[in-house]
Design goal:
alpha+beta, globular, disordered C terminus, 15 strands, 269 residues
Length: 269
């Protein structure tokens, strides 16, 4: 069958036909709509050039304005006021009829199945990666919160879970979204270098896009803006890019399967 397939794909007419399936050029899609469902804050840019949630900007305009952002599950209260039972979603629609749904994280997501083998849940996975990251500053920060004691990872994780500290990373600020098939790129607004009495952290918040979870540790990119608070929120940008499955690739595999079957039938005659 391998010889039949090689011979079949070598045909000029077949190769030309397949190029229409697999060889479509990457196409940039334009965002046409952005809708938020659930508690949120929308930060625009004020007269000082910094972010401000009182500018009255729409979610759509925020995603198309440098520095502005949409905070999912955001409130004006303490950061632990995030609704960990109900996710806030930001749905972005594009002129290619595709949709991307950005979601804040809930307790069920943190305690759900991990995205990597070897972990019981996502919280365990994320904590392990943050703790052992040389760039995040997370391990030293947790030890300082604990009074400077040289506590181990297991004890630190238990305290982290007991205090439900993961809520602090569950309200992502989505700054921009672009789509250029087969890639999606988006920015999360955060701290360029969060610092307080316990130390510094270099970590993004966590966001779910459709059914994938994204986060990052290390240096952010300087956004050039902040919201004027003590930790200079929104002063850093974390950029994420990932490849999405192409429907044309699936159609191509179906086409090849059909051609192989047809070739086998002809070969048997």
């Amino acid at each position: 069958m391998a010889r039949l397939l090689n011979k079949f794909l070598a045909s000029a007419s077949v190769v030309a036909g397949l190029s229409g399936v697999f060889g479509a050029p990457a196409m940039a899609a334009t965002m046409t709509k952005a809708t938020v469902n659930g508690a949120h804050l929308i930060y625009g840019i004020n007269e000082d050039g910094n972010t401000d949630h009182e500018t009255g900007i729409s979610a759509f305009d925020a995603l198309n304005t440098h520095g502005a952002n949409v905070e999912l599950s955001g409130t004006r209260d303490h950061n632990k006021a995030v609704d960990m039972s109900n996710a806030t979603t930001l749905t972005t629609e594009f002129d290619d009829d595709s949709t991307l749904v950005f979601s804040s994280l809930t307790k069920d997501i943190w305690l759900g199945t991990a995205t990597k083998k070897g972990y019981d849940n996502f919280a365990q996975q994320w904590f392990d990666e943050a703790w052992n990251s040389e760039e995040s500053g997370f391990q030293n920060y947790i030890k300082q919160i604990s009074g400077g004691f040289n506590i181990g990872q297991e004890m630190a994780f238990e305290a982290f879970m007991e205090q439900e500290w993961f809520a602090r990373f569950s309200d992502p600020n989505v700054e921009s979204v672009t789509k250029n098939d087969p890639y999606v790129s988006f920015d999360l607004s955060g701290h360029l270098n969060y610092a307080d009495e316990y130390g510094s952290l270099k970590m993004s918040e966590v966001v779910m896009v459709n059914d994938q979870i994204f986060y990052a540790f290390g240096d952010a990119i300087d956004s050039g803006v902040n919201n004027g608070d003590q930790q200079s929120s929104h002063s850093g940008i974390y950029t994420f890019t990932y490849k999405i499955p192409e429907p044309s690739a699936v159609l191509g595999l179906m086409a090849i399967g059909g051609m192989i079957a047809a070739t086998k039938r002809r070969a048997k005659k």
